[in-house]
Amino acid sequence: MAKVTIKEIADILGVSTATVSRVLNNSGGYSEETKRRVLDVLKQYNYQANAMAKGLRTKKTNSVGVVLPDLTNEYFAKIAVAIERVLMKKGYSINIYNMSEDANKEELMLRDLESRGVDGLIYVSGYRNQVNRVKELNIPVICVNQLEKMDETMPVIESDHEYGGYLAAKALLERGTERIIMLRDERDILPINQREQGFKAGLKEQHLRPLHISRIPFNVDAAQKEIADLLKNGKSFDGIFASSDILAIGALKALQQHGLQVPDNVQIIGFDNVTFSQYSYPALTTIHQSTDQLGEKAAERLIQSMQENHLDSNGRIVVPVHLVERETTQAWRV
Amino acid sequence: MAKVTIKEIADILGVSTATVSRVLNNSGGYSEETKRRVLDVLKQYNYQANAMAKGLRTKKTNSVGVVLPDLTNEYFAKIAVAIERVLMKKGYSINIYNMSEDANKEELMLRDLESRGVDGLIYVSGYRNQVNRVKELNIPVICVNQLEKMDETMPVIESDHEYGGYLAAKALLERGTERIIMLRDERDILPINQREQGFKAGLKEQHLRPLHISRIPFNVDAAQKEIADLLKNGKSFDGIFASSDILAIGALKALQQHGLQVPDNVQIIGFDNVTFSQYSYPALTTIHQSTDQLGEKAAERLIQSMQENHLDSNGRIVVPVHLVERETTQAWRV
DNA sequence: GTGAAAGCGCTAACAT
DNA sequence: ATGTTAGCGCTTTCAC
User: Fold this and answer.
1) What is the pLDDT at residue A30?
2) Which residue is closest, via its CA, to the C1' of C5?
3) Which residue of B has its CA nearest to A48?
4) What mean pLDDT do residues B55-71 have?
5) pTM to 2 decimals?
6) Separation in Å: C6 C1' and B58 CA
7) Cβ contact B248:B286 at 8 Å
8) Edge-to-edge, what's the strand order for the sheet holding B93-98?
9) Can you tell me the mean pLDDT for A24-49?
């Protein structure tokens, strides 16, 4: 029951700890015969290496940190799980640092990161300053969907937000809408700005512009209130592009409470394809972001960096997005 | 930049490592004067203890494991975050073990748990056998909402599932429904069984019984299909109690697609009060479970166990639930 | 009040 | 092919 150590295994076999260690690490320098004997006893006693002793000696912990803004947000949780799936297979375990949008935690996180000696870090949705502080740890860092432009040396994995916005504009136009508004997260962050850019570019191809762009806090209630206000003020529109499904859901609710039919009177396209978007009524048409690919690619890239033991980058990886057509848009018309 | 060690601090000050260590741990045996000097240099060099060296020496890691079935499920993520909030304040960091409903991972988790030497463990939604295996680690373990009856020595924090079911029945009856069906997770697990018990007890008080109980897989589509089938087969009902919001959402969708009005023709009550339940249309009436309390109480209790260094229990803690009335039920009728 | 030294469990030179 | 040994960074007796 008490954990068995290398020394005890060695004593049982009458060999040295070095031999046991060699077998454990497959580092060669022993006969097939000893290998077999050692392995047997190891298994028999269910030997489990002491990670702290090993880490102290080797300066490698086989663990990586994952920093994200909010674990209760399905989108981030999915990315974390995808990262874990890949890293787990390679023998790494992960420490999640849930920032809870709380600046105080940053200091605590940095201390913990340093104290525990993670071998690498994946920073999801970080601001430039936050990421720069983390770089001082001198371990490989990968960003996923960064919120501000990083310096050139930072490897980044991101969704094709701009093309997503473009797809939304195109889809709305093809389905006959003409007076389109955009509902966007008020924060001046890269992914949202890029979605807006792409969206405008899509409209511009048809020599159109958004009728109106609302900048609102990132939550359902704000979106609901905003659409209700626009309606109350007599604003007339037949299409909405929301920068996130969260906002689209709020818009949908406001329209329904105002007695408007979706998609007959107003069509809506969201962004992210969160699980719930398929269960609203009507089900939300949206731009799909692949959290799986985001997480997997980030993990693969980090593993590569950790093995090659270099910190610098070879640029960005852009993960494609696509339109998921459901019920808040009409059948294709053109 | 390179991490500074106790030895370096000691050399700078011309004292021994022992003295620095004593100051660091507030263990006394030094003058106020030295304390001040040591603290100064510590701060100046931004000293950060090496967690591995410390852990190796003290056999304490100041970390606890949190095992849960699925991180991408908001319910579990919220519990994890609540646990973290409490433990973080006490200087613990947490390792999340996301089982992804995958039995293979259990072995990996146990190895990792042992190897990293966590000081305690919180097992969320575990089966008896799983928890028993974990008990062999000889560290304090707390269960949250266990899926099967544990032995008497296991401390458990759980929602009052039974009373929740009772509340749902009472609410449905008070709002005039008479032909009530229940939609439940098909798995034979404690929380769901208890909700059913309470629900039946509530009906029985009015000398009623559920018209029908459907056992279905735990996902939206299954619920939607089940209600669609019942409707197709001419089953007539005016109230639904779903054992989880997830199922309630599926039911709502099926009713809407069948042209039925909620709550006019059919009233629905769910369970859990997941974030999304307030944003469905109409918004879901549901039984609220406090993930915050569940997580906080589990963490507090674990801290106590770890400090007292005893493994046994003092029974169960039951966290209250309550009805959250929204739009899938009618106004109170008597 | 302070220092010397041992040792936690492991790996990696360096011997043999 | 195998053993001996030093040491990773820390805490904790035991001396003084």
Assistant:
1) 94
2) B18
3) B115
4) 97
5) 0.95
6) 14
7) yes
8) B93-98, B63-68, B120-124, B141-144, B156-159, B316-319
9) 95
